[in-house]
From TrEMBL:
UniProtKB keywords: Glycoprotein, Hydrolase, Lipid degradation, Lipid metabolism, Signal
Domain of life: Eukaryota
Protein name as it appears in the record: AB hydrolase-1 domain-containing protein
Organism: Euphydryas editha
Molecular function, one GO term: hydrolase activity
Alphabetized InterPro entries for the sequence: AB_hydrolase_1 (IPR000073), AB_hydrolase_fold (IPR029058)
Keyword Lipid metabolism: yes
Length: 320
């Protein structure tokens, strides 16, 4: 499962050097999921994402409680298997913690969950991302007032402008990667070159909801891994409590392996330590020895076969 504003394309960027193709070539049956709202997941029985704000009334909670179980059940029904192994990047592993907590019966359906760049607590994200997160509530209020519910989509005018800017030869890489993405997520130019940037720029970022970003901002502000905050009145109606309840990580009894990078500005070691101390069945906690390993190297890195894939294959072999 991919991360925030991403798509299943992220697992294929490097062709034969990408994780999905490498696993398939090794004989694994590989399924790639998409979270609702991105370019591949915009169909609905009666809501139009371009015209109905209600379509965008979701955060990663709905990804975890509704979308992920549907994906898992489809795979198990199609294959006749009783369990599957899962790999998630960033938000793509956040939703598994929530799944195991809210729908504990799915713990039995996941043999092993490999969490790349784990995201749960956000107490210790690094600047300037820390500063940007403090403004998410204000941004959410503004977007709500102007009725903007879809974020980052390349079909909208702001997305088209960003894509055009990033597509400018030479200058686009400097602006979008060196000055923006590396600043926010950790710099590693050796692993993310101009050639792969041209590919990534065709699909990233993809759409997500305003509510999803706001939920991450809420977790940052409250310093709790909790459900969405609808305000006192809304919380009373939704949860019978004035505050949103925390997700109970002690119920997440599926096997989980954490793989972490030292140069990751989002998934800090302090926050991952908080997560690891609450997971009852954490079977592995690996900190990559590669000093420049950032938040993107798990999916887009040039040499993943050297510094990442051996850990993944060892885990799959040990627990399958």
């Amino acid at each position: 499962m991919h991360g925030l504003s991403d798509t299943a394309d992220t697992w294929l960027v490097r062709g034969n050097g990408s994780l999905a193709i490498t696993l398939a070539n090794a004989g694994y049956d590989v399924w790639l999921g998409n979270c609702r709202g991105n370019r591949y997941s915009r169909r609905h029985v009666y809501l139009d994402p371009d015209n109905d704000p209600l379509f965008w009334e979701f955060s990663f909670h709905e990804h975890a409680v509704y979308d992920l179980p549907a994906i898992i059940d489809t795979i198990l029904d199609e294959t006749g298997s009783k369990k599957l192994n899962a790999i998630g990047h960033s938000q793509g592993n956040t939703i598994f913690y929530i799944l195991g907590s809210i729908r504990p019966e799915y713990n039995e359906k996941v043999n092993l969950m490999i969490a790349l760049a784990p995201v749960c607590y956000l107490h210790n994200i690094k600047p300037p991302l820390y500063t940007l997160f403090t403004f998410i509530p204000l941004l959410n209020d503004f977007l709500k007032k102007v009725n903007i519910n879809e974020l980052f989509g390349t079909e909208k005018i702001p997305g088209k402008i960003l894509k055009a800017l990033c597509s400018i030869p030479y200058v686009g890489y400097t602006i979008c990667i060196e000055n923006i993405l590396f600043t926010l997520l950790g710099a590693d130019p050796e692993e993310f070159d101009r050639d792969v940037f041209k590919i990534v720029n065709t699909f990233f970022p993809s759409s997500t909801s305003r509510k999803n970003l706001d939920h991450f901002g809420q977790i940052f502000k409250s310093r709790r891994f909790e459900r969405y905050d609808y305000g006192v009145i809304g919380n009373k109606a939704m949860y019978n409590s004035s505050t949103p309840p925390s997700y109970d990580l002690k119920k997440v009894v599926m096997r989980i392996a954490l793989i972490v990078g030292l140069n990751d500005n989002i998934s800090s070691l302090k926050d991952i330590d908080l997560l690891s101390n609450q997971l009852p069945n954490m079977v592995n906690y690996t900190v990559s020895p590669r000093k420049t390993f950032n938040h993107m190297d798990d999916t887009w890195g040039k040499n993943m076969a050297v510094y990442l894939f051996p850990y993944i294959f060892d885990l799959l072999k040990e627990y399958s």
